[in-house]
Structures are given as structure tokens and as C-alpha cells.
């Protein structure tokens, strides 16, 4: 089987010098572009399995690259964002990017995000009915949740929030996406609902709710459900 092809669209040469060998060491195939124009041309000619996209590119905004990609491709796009691009990053996620990496990031974090994003591609074809990790078991088909083998009772809203996170299977979900999924159009802007219900989920499903392992806060962005083994 062919190894997944990853397209890097990033103008910072030092970052490309870190990304390319890191990805090749994991047997990914790699293509590089330093501008938006070059990146879009390579995306069209090679149809990569995943795109690493910098938002601050010299010729055009990374956001326009994302928009154009999304007109013809559903392949995962991971945003590479600098610290001062907080708002752009959230906008990119709401516009169809799959996840993000905040610079600077390490090799472990990069590879974990890529694994999750590529796994998700396959899940679109065959939805996983049961998700398991740590002591948690989430049966989306049977609508049952258990921790350490014991069934946990969730309210309807708690379950909908858990399901909205679980459907993204390790990828970040923005506040706006979660509010729309759980509360519908009326929920927009009510980020405090999320804080309240996330606290309830953590209380019921985390071993130590004050140090959550599964229900991860992504500051100013949203939340992610992490069912992978903890990394050190
Ligand atoms: Ca840049």
C-alpha cells in the first residue's frame, strides 16, 4: 500500500527543514510549497492525503488556500498557526480545517495530530460504532457510556455534547461547532453552556475531573476528546 502523501504549504524555511525529515522518518511521502500559489498547484496536480497549511503566506492568505481546497477536496487540512493568529485559526477550523498545531510544536505532537486526522478520513467511510480509550467506552450505536466497566448515566444534553466530541474522534471541535451541534442555532455565542456541561462530563467520566485526561480544553478554540494513551 502507498504511504500517505502530505503536502506542506509553509514559507518558513526552518520549519520546513524540521517537518520534511520528521515526516519522511515516519515513511510519509512529502511535497513542499513555500507560497499559496505553488501549494494550490501541487494540491491540484497530486491530490495529497493531508495538507499542512500555514496561515501566514507571502502571496495569499492561508485562509484563501483553505477555501479553494474545500471547493474540491475533503482531505484533512491541519493549520500551522503562529501565536498571534488565534482568531484566524478558529475561523479556519469553522471553515473546514480539521485541526491545528500552534507554533512551536514538537515532533510527537505533529505526528499524533496527523495520525488522528488520517484516521478520521477512514472513519468517514465506515463510522466506528464503539470508541474506547483509557477507562472510557463510548458506544455510539447503542448510546451507552461506561467507565471502568460501569455504565454511566448521562442527561440528554450531556450525551449530545459527548457525541459531538466523539464524532470528531480526537480532532479539535470549536466552541461554535459544539454549540451548533448540541444546542442548534439558538446556542450560538453561549460558550458558558459548554463550560458548564463540560464540567459535568468531566465529573462523571474523568478519574480526576480537576486534571482531565480525556476532555481537553484548547484555550480560546474549543475542546477535544482524547482517547489515545497519554504521551510523555
Ligand atoms: Ca508563515
From TrEMBL:
Where does the record place the modification 4-aspartylphosphate?
54
Give the main location.
Answer: cytoplasm
InterPro entries annotated for this entry?
A: CheY-like_superfamily, OmpR/PhoB-type_DNA-bd, Sig_transdc_resp-reg_receiver, WalR-like, WH-like_DNA-bd_sf
GO terms for CC?
Answer: cytosol; protein-DNA complex
PROSITE patterns listed in its UniProt record: OMPR_PHOB, RESPONSE_REGULATORY
Q: Which residues bind DNA?
A: 128-227
Which Pfam families does the annotation name?
A: Response_reg, Trans_reg_C
The name on file for this protein is Response regulator
What is the originating organism of this protein?
Answer: Candidatus Geothrix skivensis
Q: What is the lineage of its organism?
A: Bacteria, Pseudomonadati, Acidobacteriota, Holophagae, Holophagales
